[in-house]
Amino acid sequence: SSTAIVITEQPVSVSVPVGYTFTLRCRAKGRTSLQYQWFCQHQSNCQQIPGATQQDLPVTAQQTQLYTCRINDLYKNAVFSDWVKVEVHQCVARGLPPQLWRGEPVIVLNPTEQRVEVGKPLQLQCAAMGVPAPCYQWYRNGNLLEHQKKKKLLITHAKVSDSGTYLCCASNCHGEHWTNAVDIHIGETLPPAEHLQLCHLVFLSATGKIALLVGNNCYQHHPNLMAPIRDVFELRLLLEQLGFQVVSLLD
């Protein structure tokens, strides 16, 4: 029976730069001597690794793939270890990880600032290297987000209350590393920039002199004109010298 073999040390997932060399380990106990065989799976193709018949499997990271180890005894009992993921980062900033890297988390992808309409999906991403592979935990405004424990944070229907400052902590047994903090704005549909600019000027300077210039370039029954762009530009300079605040729009 398979209880004849007990795995005492499972291999662990890692997240490493391309070309990095490390060892996957598996240990087991049995009633007879044991034989080990490692397998790898890239995309959906699973194969035995030739010659990989030791407890330790040396790996030089080339591409992201999964590994498992089969252990069998002389009575035809066999068990498989957990599948582990070797995640390989192709482009890592120069100088990372340092020569003395011990496997502590190193952030290689930071989330980016976003504006999202109410009801639309909000997705943030980060990634970190680490041996073992880091665990992730997202925060908003310093508060832990209970269910956001993956590299990707996903909120399928964003609400105004989802606005705030987000960051993620990547941690493993060697320590932790935090991503940059990013501001996320969730709001109603945003008007175009020109519209905002116009409103801004009208409200701020109701007492001042405002000029709205519209240069039309594309006419239905006319070739494209070049002059309107130049005219708007020159007229704008002139009006600004006369103390007007100018909003220039094209087409």
UniProtKB/TrEMBL annotation:
InterPro entries reported in the protein's UniProt record: Caspase-like_dom_sf, Caspase-related_regulators, Ig-like_dom, Ig-like_dom_sf, Ig-like_fold, Ig_sub, Ig_sub2, Pept_C14_caspase
Pfam families per UniProt: Ig_3 (PF13927), Peptidase_C14 (PF00656)
GO molecular function terms noted in the UniProt entry: cysteine-type endopeptidase activity
All copies of domain Ig-like, residue ranges: 3-81, 105-185
Keywords annotated in UniProt: Disulfide bond, Immunoglobulin domain
GO biological process: proteolysis
PANTHER family: MUCOSA ASSOCIATED LYMPHOID TISSUE LYMPHOMA TRANSLOCATION PROTEIN 1/PARACASPASE, MUCOSA-ASSOCIATED LYMPHOID TISSUE LYMPHOMA TRANSLOCATION PROTEIN 1-LIKE
Protein name: MALT1 protein
Native source species: Halcyon senegalensis
